[in-house]
Design brief:
This protein has one domain: 2-Layer Sandwich (Ribosomal Protein S5, domain 2), CATH 3.30.230. The protein is built from three helices and four strands, in the order αβββαβα. By secondary structure, the protein is α+β, with helices and mostly antiparallel strands. It catalyses: Endonucleolytic cleavage of RNA, removing 5'-extranucleotides from tRNA precursor. One of its GO terms (biological process) is tRNA 5'-leader removal.
Length: about 120
């Protein structure tokens, strides 16, 4: 479970992130990111906060909840690497229902990397 301080809960936070933030589309996900610190918002600039949008287009409730659980699990690993004061909304597209967890993680990391929210992984082995 994603810890409470790292969750987006209010509709206004989701709207602000989707409308004023930057967006990067992937095959099964759309990643929206909004920097609260840079935008000078009055919200505390704690760690990153993540929100999920998994609509009925993804599938029935069982599938939607499975996709959301997978995405939440991926977000737990990203809490320490996404910059503080960043809100991230992940919108699942219908293809997310059949995508593996590994694919979803790759797509999410690629989207965050393109939005300059992750440092590139160096393969120095």
């Amino acid at each position: 479970m994603l810890p409470e301080p790292h969750r987006l809960r209010r509709h206004s936070d989701f709207s602000l992130t989707v409308r004023r933030g930057r967006r990067m589309g992937r095959r099964d996900l759309v990643v929206h990111a909004f920097d609260r610190v840079q935008a000078d918002e009055l919200v505390s600039s704690g760690g990153p906060r993540f929100g999920l949008v998994v609509s009925k287009a993804v599938g029935p409730a069982v599938i939607r909840h499975r996709v959301a659980r997978r995405l939440r699990h991926i977000c737990i690993d990203l809490v320490d690497v996404v910059p503080r004061g960043t809100d991230v909304v992940i919108r699942a597209l219908p293809g997310a229902a059949t995508a593996s967890s590994r694919d979803l993680e790759k797509q999410l990391r690629a989207g965050l990397l393109r939005l300059d929210l992750l440092a590139p992984v160096s393969n120095s082995t």
